[in-house]
Structures are given as C-alpha cells and as structure tokens.
Amino acid sequence: MNQLQRTNKLEHTRDNTPAFFDSDDYVLAQVSGDLKDLGRVVRVSRGIDQILGFSPDEVKGSKIEKIMPALYAQVHEDFMQGFLRRGNSAFIDKNQYLLA
C-alpha cells in the first residue's frame, strides 16, 4: 500500500473523533487525506473563532493554507503539489510539529 492509499485510509478511520472539536480553548482541525479533497478542512474546533478570527463554517471546505501564515501556506502548497506528483513523501506518516 503506497502513502496515498494509507493517507486515504486514515481519513476514513478518523470519522468518529472524540469531542475535542467542541472546545473554545484551542484550535484543532481535521484535514482531508482523501485525494479528491486533499488538504481541505473537514472540521475545526470552535476555538478557531477566538484564536484565529475565522468562524468554523468559513474554514470548513477550504484549503488548510487559508489559516496558515502566508510563508507557511506557500511552502505547504508546494509540498502538497510535489507529493501529488511523486506519490510519496518523507514527511507523511511521521509526527509533525506545527506552530499556531
């Protein structure tokens, strides 16, 4: 199973995530790993309104880059395009630390 297939499989196993999305205290975003919606926000915690100034409905369905600082967003978009071209990445399937 290649990385694209594993990423897609993970997307389908996360549908019943616990109530972490009900908090106003932090931002938690679930981003699609499904090829047709890759990189799009599936759901986001309510805290995005107070912390980043976006309503959950405003972000849902948008590319994750929408809530990233411009420099990070461009690097991420370039990474995603490279991933789609090659079908693999040294970063997928590994823990990633993100600044918020």
| Whole-angstrom Rg | 14 Å
Q: Characterize the overall form.
A: globular
CATH fold call:
Beta-Lactamase
User: What series of H and E elements makes up the topology?
Assistant: HEEHHH
Helix and strand content put the structural class at mainly alpha
Spatial sequence of strands, sheet with the most strands: 1-2
Q: Biggest sheet, open or closed, and with what strands and sense?
A: 2 strands, antiparallel
What is the CATH first-level class name? Alpha Beta
Q: Which runs of at least 5 residues are low in confidence (pLDDT < 50)? A: none
Helix count equals 4
The N- to C-terminal Cα distance equals 32 Å
Overall number of domains: 1
Helix percentage: 25-40%
Task: Round the mean pLDDT to the nearest integer and report it.
Answer: 80
Proportion of beta-strand residues: 5-15%
| Number of strand elements | 2
CATH level-two architecture: 2-Layer Sandwich
